[in-house]
Amino acid sequence: MILIESKKNLSSVKEKHVPMETIRDVLIKLSRGDLLQYMELGEGLIVYSKQDKHVKFTSVLCSTLDLTPGFNLVGFACPEDGYSAYQLLNDLGSENVSSIQRYSTEKGAFETAGFTQDGQLAGVDFPIVPGESYFIFMK
């Protein structure tokens, strides 16, 4: 399970594959500034903030990926030291994955790594680290 702690100044939260009742509960807690919500492994959040805000996400378990064709939003609680986008792409295989993307707060833009049509790695080989989320586009 993943523990999310936050205070206030968050405008909304979107969860993938989560019932609307759960999303409504999260938004109510956010509006009161007392969010203490548990999520199941494999669930993700997209949080829209009204201002810069540090939100702490911690995990008590290292999970495995359960990826489906199309768009997947994932995080890694326990990646190997030095693990990178290119390593993840190779682990998933060019026959299964198109690309992986993250938002770089330093650059203020998305970075993408993926396979070319002839199966070569291309793009930014960014690090895979705890506390970040990644968009993985599966075939």
Architecture overview:
There is one protein chain. With 139 residues, the protein is α+β, with helices and mostly antiparallel strands. The protein folds into two domains: 58 residues, no CATH class; 69 residues, no CATH class. 15% of the residues lie in helices and 38% in strands. The strands form three sheets. The chain has a five-stranded antiparallel sheet with strand order 6-10-7-8-9, covered by helices on one side. A three-stranded antiparallel sheet has the order 3-1-5, with no helix packed on it. The protein starts with a strand and ends with a strand. The N terminus is likely disordered.
The backbone outline, from C-alpha atoms, is globular
Strand segment count: 10
Strand content: 35-45%
Number of helices: 2
Identify the strand order in the major beta sheet: 6-10-7-8-9
User: What's the average pLDDT?
Assistant: 75
The percent of residues in helical segments reads: 10-25%
Classification by helices and strands: alpha+beta
Distance between the termini: 27 Å
Outline the low-pLDDT stretches.
1-16, 34-38
Radius of gyration: 16 Å
Our count of domains comes out at 2
Largest sheet: 5 strands, antiparallel
- Give, in order, the helices and strands: EEHEEEEHEEEE
Descriptive labels:
139 residues; alpha+beta; 2 domains; 5-stranded antiparallel β-sheet; 3-stranded antiparallel β-sheet; 2 helices; 15% helix; globular; disordered N terminus
